[in-house]
């Protein structure tokens, strides 16, 4: 059994969780300790005790530790990618790529630890100097989702440590294996006891303990919008810092002048890769009516060639849905779309393979009205809705007609329309002639409206959440 990691020690929990592969229900991935309230409190206490010393630690020590973590992740990307693919269900190439991204993130923040900047200014009062510095927030609680079980923890943990904070990390219950592997690497990086703590377990126990403990100074959460709202309210009650990344219902606009191959490639990758289980997925395809029929036919042709199957098999384009609950949700929305009158072009069927798994053919619905439930609510599966538009202005209005605002894309050969869309799309990230899913690790990540709250994640902007500003005055 894989244990919890608290105060520099490996500890048993109050229960054990057994995980199985969504590609093969007979494949037991592992057994993992599950923390109860007592272990969660121990993790917070350990991080709290270690915080003062780590906040004053040398930046070279932080940089060396993070660089070592990143190097090991990169060296073991095939091994850890195989574990991730077994556990979460994304295809092996995608899983290996995710581990490599996690390694790159740690190495990026190893250098960012050396670049925490401040300012020295002259006061308006003669003989007085002003120093503006950044200091750690303190104890950071990290609550990560299941869909990117090593990359998202990396882009939260790495900056937290780089800027001198201590960490209590709670991964999603259904993917503890990747989190444990990451924690095991971190445990050997030379960090003082208590600086990093792994508390696997249910959100109602571990998550609640982190949210309601005054010793946790900040919470970084990625997950559903409904849970994110509860996190925000709990943090607001005790004035803790909070960072939320939540849902998306992302539009990909395809104009009449678009290169059709580019548009179809962007839609296929954005809508269906990673089994559509990405908050940045293109779930609304808004297509100019002048090329609407050609686009739908081209999509159907490309989708017919996609291979769905065991995530570990070569040549597979789309792996299984992560678990039975998510599969049920996907199938429910497919049924809703049919009842609403949308036309099922292809897919949307439970598939049987050589192994027992949660396989679903990607679904494309056409002739969708923008008010239909399946075209407005986040499904988080391989389901895309094609909505007709009467030219650019109508397409832009449809793209912005959503409570979410994470990412938005446009396919066009018009510089005028691309430039206007980048300025007027109500989203935190905008893609031109690219899938809406797929972002770099060294630049800001985040959205607007119901998709995000608080400072951006990733890149140098992460310092805005993980460090606080102090202004000091000195009389000469």
From TrEMBL:
GO terms for molecular function: oxidoreductase activity, acting on the aldehyde or oxo group of donors, NAD or NADP as acceptor. Keywords: Oxidoreductase. Residues 12-471 form the Aldehyde dehydrogenase domain. InterPro entries: Ald_DH/histidinol_DH, Ald_DH_C, Ald_DH_CS_CYS, Ald_DH_CS_GLU, Ald_DH_N, Aldehyde_DH_dom. Pfam families: Aldedh (PF00171). SUPFAM superfamilies: ALDH-like. It comes from the Bacteria. The active site is at 245. Belongs to the aldehyde dehydrogenase family. This is Aldehyde dehydrogenase family protein.
């Amino acid at each position: 059994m894989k244990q919890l990691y608290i105060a520099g020690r490996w500890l048993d929990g109050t229960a054990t969780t057994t995980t199985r592969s969504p590609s093969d229900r007979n494949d037991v991935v592992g057994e993992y300790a599950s923390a109860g309230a007592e272990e969660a409190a121990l993790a917070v206490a350990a991080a709290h005790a270690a915080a003062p010393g780590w906040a004053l630690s040398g930046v070279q020590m932080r940089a060396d530790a993070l660089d070592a973590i990143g190097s090991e992740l990169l060296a073991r990307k095939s091994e850890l990618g195989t574990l991730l693919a077994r556990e979460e269900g994304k295809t092996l190439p995608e899983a290996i790529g995710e581990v490599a991204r996690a390694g790159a993130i740690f190495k990026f923040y190893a250098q960012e630890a050396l670049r925490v900047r401040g300012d020295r200014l002259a006061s308006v009062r003669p003989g007085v100097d002003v120093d503006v510095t950044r200091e750690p927030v303190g104890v950071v609680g990290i609550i990560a989702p299941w869909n990117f079980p090593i990359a998202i923890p990396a882009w939260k943990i790495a900056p937290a440590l780089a800027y001198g904070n201590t960490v209590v990390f709670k991964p999603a219950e259904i993917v503890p294996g990747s989190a444990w592997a990451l924690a095991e690497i971190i445990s050997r990086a030379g960090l003082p006891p208590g600086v990093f703590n792994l508390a696997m377990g249910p959100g109602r126990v571990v998550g609640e303990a982190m949210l309601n403990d005054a010793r946790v100074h900040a919470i970084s959460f990625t997950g559903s919008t409904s849970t994110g709202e509860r996190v925000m309210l709990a943090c607001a009650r005790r004035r803790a810092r909070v960072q939320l990344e939540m849902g998306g219902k992302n539009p990909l606009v395809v104009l009449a002048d678009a290169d059709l191959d580019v548009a179809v490639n962007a839609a296929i990758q954005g809508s269906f890769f990673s089994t559509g289980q990405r908050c940045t997925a293109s779930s609304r395809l808004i297509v100019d009516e002048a090329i609407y029929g050609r686009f739908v036919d081209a999509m159907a042709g490309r989708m017919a060639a996609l291979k769905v199957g065991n995530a570990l098999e070569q040549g597979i384009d789309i792996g299984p849905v992560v678990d039975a609950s998510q599969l049920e949700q996907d199938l429910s929305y497919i049924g809703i779309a049919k009842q609403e009158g949308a036309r099922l072009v292809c897919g949307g069927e439970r598939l049987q393979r050589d192994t027992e798994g949660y396989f679903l053919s990607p679904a494309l619905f056409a002739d969708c009205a923008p008010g239909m439930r399946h075209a407005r609510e986040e499904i988080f599966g391989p389901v895309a809705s094609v909505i007709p538009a009467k030219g650019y202005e109508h397409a832009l209005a449809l793209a912005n007609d959503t409570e979410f605002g994470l990412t938005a894309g446009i396919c066009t050969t018009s510089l005028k329309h691309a430039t206007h869309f980048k300025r007027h799309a109500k989203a935190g990230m905008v893609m031109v002639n690219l899938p809406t899913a797929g972002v770099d690790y060294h630049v800001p990540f985040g959205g607007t409206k119901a998709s995000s709250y608080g400072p951006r994640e990733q890149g140098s902007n992460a310092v805005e959440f993980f460090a606080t500003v102090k202004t000091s005055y000195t009389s000469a």
